[in-house]
Amino acid sequence: MKRIAAWAALAFGTLYFLLPLMGMTEFSLKMRRGVYSLDAYARVLADPKFQETFSYSVIMAVFTILFGILLVVPTAYWVRLKLPRARPYVEFVTLLPLVIPAIVVVFGYIRLYNTSSWLPLTGTVTGTNILLMFGYATLSLPYMYRAVDTGLRTIDVTTLTEAAQSLGAGWVTILGRLILPNVLVAVLSGAFVTLAIVIGEFTMAALLNRPAFGPYMQLLGANRAYEPAALAVIAFGITWGCMGLIQLVARLAPKPAIPVKD
Amino acid sequence: MTEAPYLSINGISKSFGPMQVVRNADIEVGRGEFVSFLGPSGCGKTTILRMVAGFETPSTGSISIDGRDITYLKPSQRNIGMVFQSYALFPNLTVAGNIGFGLRVAGVNRADIDQRVKEMLALIGLPQLADRFPWQLSGGQQQRVALARAIAPRPSVLLLDEPLSALDAKIRVSLREEIRAIQQELGITTIFVTHDQEEALSMSDRVMVMYQGRIEQIGTPAEIYNQPRTSFVAAFVGTLSQLDATVTDLGRGEAKVGSAAISGLTLPDSVKPGDAIRLAIRPESIRREHRDGDQTLEARIESVNFLGAVIRIKLTIGDVALSLDTFNDPTRPSPVNGQTIKVHFAPEAVLALTD
Predict the structure, then answer these.
(1) CATH number at residue A225
(2) Range in A102-106, A198-202, B250-254 the model is least confident about
(3) How far is CA B187 from the centre of its chain?
């Protein structure tokens, strides 16, 4: 009886998630009247705006991921190593982007870094891109920090650090050659979540007037019928591809050194 | 230790907040010497080791190696090798990568690293495991690799922080013999922290016994075992029966335990007749056979524990409890609970403790 209930719950859950996706996918294939076709996909992929905005967002995602790694890995490592009592406070700070809306953050940025401020980042394209990257890094902070912190929990950070120090290693060597490789899977899972966030983010990119993928999707959705559905399926594909990569990389990760039986 | 000290720990103390965990410790270790720090958990032995390694800074005092003050140097600047209880092998590196890590950090060229890694693998008897990752090794193999990694950069001092505690009993015994053999082969100055007295006594040139942050005694294993200076050392190292006694005659070295008098004791200079002292005797010093010069007491058998090669008998002499160890001899009748027997011991085997 319990088994049947479990299978029923699973079937309900699967249908609940899959039916809208199937409906959307089917709709995206109906651009040509009477037959299924990939016309909507072809039109989206051929649109220079798609290529431009998608490339921009991917490049922004790469920079955001690099910046996130440089910010989060040393911070999470240092908190674990030297400031374990500060961990709850740091975790609280990293969760703030979940409760502070992106629009508040971006207005704060514009107010602080406008052309008449002491650091006029919005005055140049590069400056605005940097500002947008900071914004993306802020939005992905809760996921990135949690992923790295969980990765650090699987290794004995203190003893590995001491072992490396006794062998003459400095902080850069310890972080670059030991800590980072051992939390690489966690970093990558954080990185893929960051990629998904950056690809879909609308508010910050729109308000900073940058040609990102999020505003393009919004624009297309407001003016076309079939293309937005095709775009949503593509976005889902990218996200699921990222998830698959996380699983794949997790298999290649260094395993903790729990000894086999003597 | 007769030659000039190689590692000097001079009057170091360490406090964590209001708690003082090491109190004014002075230790000198000769070049190539193997010294064990022995004591119960929380006695401060690991804290001293960590101060030598540079992971803790002494509150007072100094540490020097070969005349060079290292008290405030970073751990990475001390050229000290350390082996940890939890092995602490780098999970992302192979065995060869782990062993060569210190050399790579030091900028040694690739060919020399490969050569040294080969030497180390041969030294620890695992030349076939160079390409394995730590998780593919047993605990004993991991600890051997950790040892090789620590000594590969030719450190001036090797620190071993309870390296055998996480291993099972058989591996522990074989590995401690290997560690000692490697240490003697390389002649490397070594400090070994343990709470296992058997390890400390069997491996060390000298043993330092610690209790509550203080050094209780430093001496050779035989000195520590046979001539403990304090009641703590006497009780902590080996099994000891302690008897409350009263000094009766200084000239004859006599003290009374209950109504029984024991003479020929070596009494401390500070005692006088009527003083209370504590006598201590090891189970193996009490015999059932009489020899010339022995003291004899009548005792009642309270319990008999068969330990294989040895039989441990719990005795009472009046109100006082004692232990007696005797070899198992299948041709002799086994002792029986409640039986009254005569036990004998040499007066020199009795330790008189004043604290």
Answers:
(1) 1.10.3720
(2) B250-254
(3) 20
Interface test with B, best of A166, A177, A258 (most B CBs within 10 A): A166
**What ipTM was assigned to the predicted interfaces of this complex?**
0.82
Q: What pLDDT, on a 0 to 100 scale, did the predictor assign at position B1?
A: 53
- DSSP string spanning B192-225? EEES-HHHHHHH-SEEEEEETTEEEEEE-HHHHH
| Residues of chain B contacting A262 with CB distance shorter than 8 Å | 138-140, 167-168, 171
- Is A219 a domain residue? yes
Structure tokens at A83: 């400031």
pLDDT digits (tens, 9 = 90+) for B321-351: 888 888 888 888 778 888 898 888 888 888 8
Q: What are A12's two structure tokens?
A: 């309900």
Residue A258 lies in a domain: no
- Inter-axis angle of helices A102-112 and A125-153, nearest 10: 130
CA A218, CA B344: separation in Å to the nearest integer? Answer: 99
Which pLDDT band, with edges at 50, 70 and 90, does A253 fall under?
Answer: low
pLDDT the model gives residue A260: 46
User: What's the domain count of chain A?
Assistant: 1
Q: How many helices (H) and strands (E) does chain B have?
A: 8, 19
| Residue A103 counted as domain residue | yes
Closest B-chain CA to A252? B92
Strand order in the sheet with B340-345: B320-327, B310-317, B295-306, B340-345
Is the Cβ–Cβ distance between B250 and B265 less than 8 Å?
Answer: no
Q: What's the full length of chain B, in residues? A: 355
pLDDT at site B236: 87
Name every chain B residue with its beta carbon within 8 A of the beta carbon of A160.
88, 90
Residue corresponding to tokens 């030294």: B123
Tokens of A209: 């007037």
**CA-to-CA dists, residue B83 to A154, B169, B201, B204, angstroms:** 21, 19, 20, 17
Give the structural domain span for A246: 35-69+81-146+183-252
- CA–CA distance, B84 with B159 (Å, rounded to integer): 9
Q: What is the pLDDT of residues B50-98, one digit of tens each?
A: 999 999 999 999 999 999 999 999 999 999 999 998 889 999 999 999 9
Q: Is residue A233 part of a domain?
A: yes
The string of pLDDT tens digits covering residues A138-189 is 999 999 999 999 999 989 999 999 999 999 999 999 999 999 999 988 898 8
Query: Does the pLDDT value for residue B2 go beyond 60?
Result: no
Residue B160 in contact with partner chain A when CB distance is under 8 A: no
Cα(A51)–Cα(A28) distance, integer angstroms: 19
List of residues 6+ apart from B345 with CB closer than 8 A: B281, B285, B286, B287, B294, B295
What residues have CB less than 8 Å from B18, skipping those under 6 apart?
Answer: none
- Residue where the block lists tokens 């170091």: B12
Say which of A163, A173, A254 has its CB closest to residue B84.
A163
